[in-house]
Amino acid sequence: MIQAAEALVKALTIPDWGMRKIQAGKMTQRTLNQFNSYQHIPEVKQLIDDIINKRPIDGLTLHYLKRRYVENEKIRKPDDLNIWFSNVLQDKKAIVFKKKTGGRYIVHSKKFSLLAVFEENGQRVSVYDYPIDYKGDQWCLIQQLII
Amino acid sequence: MVSNPTIDYLKAYTAMVVHGLDYWAVPGLRELRTKAEQVLIDYEQRQSIAKLDEYLVDAILDLDDDEVPDDLLQDDSSRPLTQWWWHLGKLRAGTYPAHLLPPHLRAIYQPAERRAA
Predict the structure, then answer these.
(1) Torsions phi, psi of B44, nearest 5?
(2) Residue ranges covered by each domain of chain B
(3) What is the pTM of this model?
(4) Domain residue extents for chain A
(5) Which of A1, A28, A81, B73 has its CA 20 to 30 A from that of B2?
(6) Do B25 and A125 touch (CB under 8 A)?
């Protein structure tokens, strides 16, 4: 419980999405293909250069650019993702699910219809729409981890 | 606003595949896919899910990706083989019977014997 609370506090207070090194493979090619039509946009061009040159990519930037250009979502700035993430972790009624050893924490907020995933060390992994009840093994509510 | 379970399941599966798959942040993916199968109604919805299934299978078949979670590759033998999403381990290993896949997935799947050839 203490470890989970520590991870939660870190995920909430430090918006760290980690750096990803994108390896060769189909997924990388798929990512490059997805961004191909937007390579005239400087921030996308930079991302493509980083991927091709195997430089680590900031997780938040990758999330943001994919949502903004590839998925054409209504997202204005990378920090919108941080706001969504914080909303989930600040929702006292959000449900924390049982985690497997070495696994990630999963939190579902019914209020915001969002699912947030973060690592054991509090690093943010992903946040996305989840308008239905998540069917995992419920562990506790956020309010039980943060007093 | 009244929520529409069909749309909601499709939305959740879409978001999970589109935003979660790059990071393998796909908790409960197989349960969600099963539910989506049960509620899908029209042709357009089935087409949408077919595209998402392609992304998923493509990611599972990417043998250069060593971050595929082990639990996702642990097949559930109590589920029918036709529900291929419960047998992702066999798909990745190339031991899943290709003829049970829908045509759009069969097109990207390579059974083990063909990989070796």
Answers:
(1) -60, -45
(2) 5-116
(3) 0.86
(4) 2-16+78-145
(5) A81
(6) yes
